[in-house]
Amino acid sequence: MMKTQWILICCMLFALLTAVFAVINVDKVKVNFLFAQPDMPLILVILGSTLLGGLIVGAFGMLRGYKMQRTIRQQDRLLQAWKQATGLEEPPIPAEPSQEQPHEQTTAPQS
Question: Which of 43, 81, 102, 108 could disulfide-link 22, Cβ–Cβ 3.0 to 4.6 Å?
Fold first, then answer.
């Protein structure tokens, strides 16, 4: 919960800094779109670029969340199938490796 609040605060600070930076830069600039070169106020270029960047990052975040949800559903199906096949409620917890030294292997004498 706290992490989400910090992310929200950082996003708001970034938005505020971007808005202040954009308001300071109101001169007209020539923007090259390959097919046209309109003169636009720099404030629109800055805000548009920030918005487009945020949309791209958000789309990748949504894609990542979708993939995680799909993986979780697949793992849940595998767990349910395992429970039905074994009749157990929970998978066994693997034993921790012992702290003993590994046994040395004996080698056959060479002739």
Answer: 43
- 83 bridge partner residues: none
The whole-model pTM stands at 0.59
Instruction: Please name the residues in contact with 28: beta carbons below 8 A apart, sequence gap of 6 or more.
Output: 39, 40, 41, 42
* Whether 23 contacts 46, CB under 8 Å: no
Report the alpha-carbon distance of residue 75 to residue 58 in Å, rounded. 26
For 47-95, the pLDDT digits (tens) are 888 889 989 999 999 999 999 999 999 999 998 998 888 888 877 788 8
Provide CB contacts within 8 A for 43, sequence distance 6+.
22, 23, 25, 26
Question: If you ran DSSP here, which 8-state letter would residue 35 be given?
Answer: S
- Chain centroid to Cα 33, Å, comes to 31
Chain length of the chain: 111
Distance, CA of 70 to CA of 42 (rounded, Å): 42
Separation of alpha carbons 42 and 19, rounded Å: 12
